[in-house]
Every structure is written in C-alpha cells, then in structure tokens.
C-alpha cells in the first residue's frame, strides 16, 4: 500500500520545503490517494 508510506495528509510544510504539483488521473477503481502516493513514490 503506497498510501501508508507516502501519503501524509496532516503534514505541515516548512519554510525550507520545495513543493511541486502534479495532476493525477487514477485508473478506474483506484482511489485518488493511492494513485497520488504511487506518483510520490516514483519522484
């Protein structure tokens, strides 16, 4: 489960963080959080 490792909804950014935005369209039947976490795992 990628989500458990890479998806942290309560994370608060720091002034030193570098942020990037990605648009992800999950495949049918895949939760958005899981698809986003899979992209984060490859970054």
TrEMBL record:
Its main location: plastid. Gene3D superfamilies: RuBisCO large subunit, N-terminal domain. Residues 6-43 form the Ribulose bisphosphate carboxylase large subunit ferrodoxin-like N-terminal domain. GO terms for biological process: photorespiration; reductive pentose-phosphate cycle. Its EC number is 4.1.1.39. GO terms for cellular component: chloroplast. It catalyses: 2 (2R)-3-phosphoglycerate + 2 H(+) = D-ribulose 1,5-bisphosphate + CO2 + H2O; D-ribulose 1,5-bisphosphate + O2 = 2-phosphoglycolate + (2R)-3-phosphoglycerate + 2 H(+). One of its GO terms (molecular function) is ribulose-bisphosphate carboxylase activity. InterPro entries: RuBisCO, RuBisCO_lsu_fd_N, RuBisCO_lsu_N_sf. Keywords: Calvin cycle, Carbon dioxide fixation, Chloroplast, Lyase, Methylation, Monooxygenase, Oxidoreductase, Photorespiration, Photosynthesis, Plastid. It is found in: Plastid, Chloroplast. PANTHER family: RIBULOSE BISPHOSPHATE CARBOXYLASE, RIBULOSE BISPHOSPHATE CARBOXYLASE LARGE CHAIN. Belongs to the RuBisCO large chain family. Type I subfamily. This is Ribulose bisphosphate carboxylase large chain. It comes from Crotalaria lotiformis. The gene is matK.
């Amino acid at each position: 489960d990628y989500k458990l490792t890479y998806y942290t909804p309560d994370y608060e950014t720091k002034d030193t963080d570098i942020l990037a935005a990605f648009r992800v369209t999950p495949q049918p039947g895949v939760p958005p959080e899981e698809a986003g976490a899979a992209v984060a795992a490859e970054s």
